């Protein structure tokens, strides 16, 4: 086990399970992850291999004997009849039969109906009246000659969820983990290998948990297929309900006027709408209106008296086009059904999670480490819904007073959710808060910027904040930095008209918004010019290459010195090779350029490092580029810069290591071939003009 796994088992013994065990026991059982982990938690919540092996066999045996496969329903029914009583694992729902004044259950897989249920059971588990709930039930068979009486009877029924957790113990154990360790533990808990994700990508994954910890939180995630958008809502928690197809009726979601019974929002912490996108889909206007009122006011009404509920809404769907296409031709909400592509509905969304930043899920992304039994974590998150952390960021930062109350509330709810998930016991620093605050502001800004494109009556908003020093810090979305030529298109004009506008302003290499952008912005980027400046690049951004960053500053240079102490691992040395390739491609055929690297030795495998660096020297033979390298002996330490004999100094906080490390796998990816298709790490670059010597 890793050091983190050891620590997890030390402080959360009995509440964690090795995450790869789910696949080991699932077989062909079509059950949510939380059902399987509930069973694994009973028998495999340990780090002892012998106990794990024994527990796996026990869980497999339980599933084999008691989980009901639809194809074997007849056999199980016969078993219940012959034995008189039998325990089954099935999805069960209950309804009231008004003719007999009794409650009757339906077993989804077992295929039996009108199973008698006593009132006490229904009062103890009211969710059974709303939708199917996975349960472990003892079913009896008692034949009666009265055809009106069903022979099936439930003796006991237990929804699959942990009854009680020690929240104070959870907070105390959290204090034993650093922030990074805790984030990695949460990533492993939802089934992912933390090493396969960058910091921002981890936070985006954890952002999907916010609806579970925040009451009445509305989030939307639109992006490509296969990124796991609906997984959290269908597999993660017994307190979330995923509506497949994204379609639901008013009685089912809110209240049934016929009997006054409240719908899904009254019983579930999260109601998620899967496959929500689709321009061809239609929605009931009355449903949309009630949803808008509920999302804004936490209440709804179909009669005289308004009713309140606490369920959060999550909307997930696939986009039809990539981000630049949407920004140039429509907006980032273009995939929504027409009835929901409405400014009033969109304005009620607290956050827009950029699904295009999340990679398609692959097998190597799943963890084999330890994480919380998802049902245990689900109960903790549910307990946290009672807390309110929204004012904690005010201890360190002040959000711009120019944003509206609705914008401010959205940012605070997102911040509260993040803090509950990552810092449930407090203790966060100003640096910790700022990282989360930037993401919370960005998530609401993405909503508001698109609203301005959809409805020009919405004013532009200054999404910024100030720290204790009084310095104003403006927030941008990643796509705003990456595609400024499209992001600032005015909503009232056709893209072609804007392209021809006389007030056009060209894109610069930084992706920062030009001052004249309020007029219009050209979609034709100008040739990059070498200018002094300091620029910050957001994590997960794409579209940046060494050519865009460095080429204008290397023009005419005959000697280039790269100082980077961390050209050590294979992918870092590959970055160095790509830098050299860029120099070869940019220089005139007849020119000679010397490229010298100053780096540090890889103490783990310095011989391999030498061989790889020497291979770059050999590869440059006959190209007009002379590549040399040396280990640092001057004591420059951690400095990372590029200096040319033409007077330019380029300072990089990460050196050449600006791209997220690739995952090793078979097959081809554009990121392997084209730097513009790789996700960036967060980094800055400073261009300084020096006196030539």
TrEMBL record:
Superkingdom: Bacteria
Coiled-coil regions, chain positions: none
Residues in MITD1 C-terminal phospholipase D-like domain copies: 543-689
Protein name (database record): Uncharacterized protein
Region annotation Disordered: where it falls in the sequence: 494-525
All residue ranges annotated as the BREX system Lon protease-like BrxL N-terminal domain in the record: 10-141
Signal peptide: none
Pfam families reported in the protein's UniProt record: BrxL_ATPase, BrxL_N, MIT_C
Skewed-composition ranges (Acidic residues): 500-509
């Amino acid at each position: 086990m890793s050091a983190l796994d050891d620590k997890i088992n030390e402080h959360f013994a009995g509440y964690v399970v090795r995450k790869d065990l789910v696949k080991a026991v699932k077989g062909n059982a079509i059950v949510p992850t939380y059902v399987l982990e509930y069973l694994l938690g009973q028998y495999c919540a340990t780090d002892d291999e012998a106990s794990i092996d024994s527990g796996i066999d026990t869980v497999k045996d339980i599933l084999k004997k008691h989980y009901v496969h639809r194809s074997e329903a007849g056999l199980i029914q016969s078993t219940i009849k012959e034995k008189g009583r039998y325990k089954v694992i099935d999805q069960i729902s209950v309804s009231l039969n008004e003719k007999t004044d009794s409650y009757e259950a339906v077993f989804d897989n077992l295929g039996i109906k009108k199973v008698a249920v006593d009132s006490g059971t229904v009062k103890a588990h009211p969710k059974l009246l709303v939708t199917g709930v996975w349960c472990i039930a003892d079913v009896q068979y008692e034949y009666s000659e009265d055809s009106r009486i069903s022979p099936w009877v439930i003796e006991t029924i237990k929804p699959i969820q942990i009854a009680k957790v020690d929240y104070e113990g959870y907070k105390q154990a959290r204090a034993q983990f650093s922030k990074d360790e805790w984030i990695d533990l949460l990533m492993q808990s939802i089934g992912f290998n933390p090493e396969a994700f960058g910091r921002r990508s981890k936070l985006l994954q954890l952002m999907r948990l916010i609806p579970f910890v925040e009451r009445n939180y509305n989030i939307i995630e639109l992006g490509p297929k296969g990124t796991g958008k609906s997984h959290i809502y269908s597999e993660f928690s017994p307190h979330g309900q995923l509506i497949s197809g994204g379609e639901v009726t008013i009685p089912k979601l809110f209240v049934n006027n016929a009997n006054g019974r409240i719908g899904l929002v009254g019983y579930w912490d999260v109601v998620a709408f899967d496959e929500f996108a689709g321009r061809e889909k239609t929605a009931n206007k009355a449903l949309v209106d009630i949803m808008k009122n509920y999302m804004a006011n936490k209440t709804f009404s179909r009669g005289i008296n308004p009713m309140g509920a606490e369920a959060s809404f999550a909307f997930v769907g696939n986009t039809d086009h990539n981000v630049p296409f949407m920004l140039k031709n429509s907006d980032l909400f273009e995939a929504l059904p027409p009835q929901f592509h409405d400014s009033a509905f969109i304005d009620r969304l607290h956050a827009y999670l950029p699904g295009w930043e999340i990679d398609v899920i692959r097998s190597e992304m799943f963890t084999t480490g330890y994480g919380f039994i998802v049902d245990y974590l689900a109960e903790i998150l549910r307990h946290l819904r009672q807390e309110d952390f929204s004012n904690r960021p005010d201890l360190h930062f002040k959000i711009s007073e120019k944003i509206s109350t609705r914008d401010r509330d959205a940012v605070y709810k997102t911040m509260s959710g993040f803090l509950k998930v990552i810092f449930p016991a407090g203790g966060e620093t100003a640096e910790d808060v700022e990282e989360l605050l930037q993401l919370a502001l960005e998530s609401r800004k993405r909503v508001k910027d698109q609203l301005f494109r959809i409805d020009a009556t919405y004013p532009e908003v200054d999404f910024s904040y100030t720290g204790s020093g009084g310095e104003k810090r403006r927030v941008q979305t990643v796509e705003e930095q990456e595609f400024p030529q499209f992001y600032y298109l005015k909503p009232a004009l056709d893209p072609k008209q804007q392209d021809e506008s006389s007030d056009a302003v060209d894109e610069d290499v930084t992706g920062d918004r030009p001052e004249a952008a309020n007029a219009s912005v050209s979609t034709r980027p100008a040739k990059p010019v070498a200018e002094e400046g300091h620029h910050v690049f957001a994590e997960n951004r794409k579209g940046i290459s060494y050519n865009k960053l460095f080429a204008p500053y290397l023009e005419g240079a005959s000697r280039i010195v790269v100082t980077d102490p961390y050209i050590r691992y294979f992918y870092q040395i590959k970055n160095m090779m790509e830098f050299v390739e860029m120099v070869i491609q940019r220089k005139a055929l007849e020119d000679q350029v010397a490229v010298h690297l100053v780096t540090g030795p890889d103490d783990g495998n310095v011989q391999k490092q030498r061989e790889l660096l020497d291979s770059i020297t050999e590869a440059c033979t006959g190209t007009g580029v002379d590549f040399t390298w040396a280990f640092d002996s001057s004591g420059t330490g951690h400095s990372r810069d590029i200096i040319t004999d033409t007077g330019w100094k380029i300072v990089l906080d990460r050196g050449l290591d600006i791209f997220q490390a690739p995952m090793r796998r078979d097959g081809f990816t554009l990121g392997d071939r084209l730097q513009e298709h790789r996700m960036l790490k967060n980094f800055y670059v400073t261009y300084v003009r020096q006196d030539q010597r």
